[in-house]
Design goal:
The complex is a heterodimer of chains A (118) and B (118). In chain A, 0% of the residues lie in helices and 47% in strands. In chain A, 38% of the residues are buried. Chain B is an all-beta fold. Classes of the chains: A mainly beta (118), B mainly beta (118). Chains A and B meet through strand 5, strand 9 and strand 10 of A and strand 6 and strand 10 of B.
């Protein structure tokens, strides 16, 4: 079974340019997460989707970040415009169930996209 | 608010030595989950273990063992007879909610870089 797929793996852009990251979760996983991992830090949640609904976007900087999961499967995270401080790894994870399941569902992580903003 | 602290930023050992990675957490909830993840140079977070707050039994899996002590809010991870392939960044994480908006939100520590020399 294929794992969580992310692309691109690496992206280098100049500041003020837009950038987008793509994630395809494990087949059948209805919950999708985007995390930000700064160098030397643990990941931090940006947004969580259950199917196509963004149920927790409280930590997403909405002035420049946006995300979508239109059909409840794959997802895109966008930054426009990018700033130097956005250089980080962007991780996507998915899990089989969500908040209505009543129990914890394991999160499976993709390899991440390493963004460098010059 | 929840918090996870990994006091050791970096640990360096020689192959076959035992090594313990410390993790201390803070939470106001009585129900929560604790995790350890491994992040090799490839970048993908690999799940190692999950414990819930009601299960304080220590666990052993091959060369890995975990010591969960609620009295000291600690969840330490020991690798016995370390190998070069164990070299990675290890993260301890906490999740408080199994329902609602904060479902599945993982709070990570800053990570411990483990280097095992041959």
């Amino acid at each position: 079974e294929a794992g969580v797929v992310q692309s691109p793996r690496y992206k280098i852009i100049e500041k003020k340019q837009p950038v987008a990251f793509w994630c395809n979760p494990i087949s059948g996983h209805n919950t999708l997460y985007w995390y930000l991992q700064n160098l030397g830090q643990g990941p931090e949640l940006l947004i969580r989707y259950e199917n196509e609904e963004a149920v927790d976007d409280s930590q997403l900087p909405k002035d420049r970040f946006s995300a979508e999961r239109l059909k409840g499967v794959d997802s895109t995270l966008k930054i426009q415009p990018a700033e130097l401080g956005d250089s980080a790894v962007y991780l996507c994870a998915s899990s089989l169930g969500g908040s209505t399941s009543g129990f914890y569902n394991e999160q499976f992580f993709g390899p991440g996209t390493r963004l460098t903003v010059l | 608010a929840q918090k996870v602290t990994q006091a050791q930023t970096e640990i360096s050992v020689v192959e076959k030595e035992d090594v313990t990675l410390d993790c201390v957490y803070e939470t106001r909830d009585t129900t929560y989950y604790l995790f350890w993840y491994k992040q090799p140079p490839s970048g993908e977070l690999v799940f190692l273990i999950r414990r819930n707050s009601f299960d304080e039994q220590n666990e052993i899996s091959g060369r890995y063992s975990w010591n969960f002590q609620k009295s000291t809010s600690s969840f330490n991870f020991t690798i016995t007879a370390s190998q070069v392939v164990d070299s990675a960044v290890y993260f301890c994480a906490l999740s408080e909610a199994i329902t609602g908006t904060s479902y599945g939100k993982l709070t990570f520590g800053q990570g411990t870089i483990l280097t095992v020399h041959p």
